[in-house]
Amino acid sequence: MVVDAALTKGIQMLALGLLLIVIAIIFITAVLFGANSGPVGFDLQVLEIETTAIGVFGLGALTLLVLMFGLLAIRLGTRKSLEHRRERKELKELHAREEKHAGSSSDAGRGTRTDDRATGGSHTDGRTADLPDQRTDRR
User: Fold this and answer.
1) Region for 81 from its dihedrals, namely left if φ exceeds 0, alpha if ψ lies in -120 to 50, beta otherwise
2) What is the Cα–Cα distance from 93 to 86, expressed in whole angstroms?
3) Cα–Cα distance between 120 and 125 in angstroms, integer?
4) Interatomic CA distance for residues 59 and 66, integer angstroms
5) Are 119 and 126 contacting, i.e. CB atoms less than 8 angstroms apart?
6) Is the pTM higher than 0.70?
7) What is d(CA 74, CA 101) in angstroms, rounded to the nearest whole number?
8) What's the helix, strand, coil split of the chain in %, to 5?
9) pLDDT value, residue 139
10) Which residues pair with 50 in a beta bridge?
C-alpha cells in the first residue's frame, strides 16, 4: 500500500501535537496540585515581586498568551501589507499594459481626431482613462 508523503507528515504532526497536549496537561496538573504554597519572590532591582508558585505559573501563561496575540497581530498585519503590495503591483502592470495598448491604437488614428469632444477633453493624445481614480480609493 502506497501512502502519500503529505498524509504521513500530517499524521506525524497530529501525533506530536497530541503528545505535547498530554505533556502540558500533566504539567498543569502537577503545578496546580503539587505546588507548595510558600511565597516565591523575584527581585528585579527596580521592582520586587512576591507571589506563590501557582501565581508564577499563571503569570507565565498570561505572558505566553500576550506573546501569541502579538505574533498573530504581526502575522495578520504582514499578510495585509503583502496583499496590498501585490494588488498595487498588479494595478501598475495593468495600467502599463493599458498605456501600451492605448499608445499603439492612438498612433493609428492620430490623424483622424481633431475634436476635443471626441476624446472627452481629458487627454491631449486622444486617450481617455479607463482605470478608476486611485486618489479616491484609499483604505
Assistant:
1) alpha
2) 11
3) 11
4) 10
5) yes
6) no
7) 40
8) 65, 5, 25
9) 47
10) 41
Exposed/middle/buried for 106, CB within 10 Å: 0-12, 13-18, 19+?
middle
Cα 50 from chain centroid (whole Å): 39
Give the 3-state secondary structure of residue 51: strand
CA distance 27 to 21: 10
Please tell me the predicted confidence (pLDDT) of residue 14: 85
Residue 66: per-residue pLDDT: 92
- Grid coordinates in use for 114? 481633431
Residue extents of the structural domains in the chain: 10-105
Average pLDDT, 10 consecutive residues per value, the chain (139 residues) = 72 86 85 74 84 83 90 88 90 91 68 50 51 51
Q: What is the DSSP string of 81-128?
A: HHHHHHHHHHHHHHHHHHHHHHHHHHHHTTTT---HHHHTTS-TTS--
Q: Which residues contact 48 (CB under 8 A, 6 or more apart)?
A: 41, 42
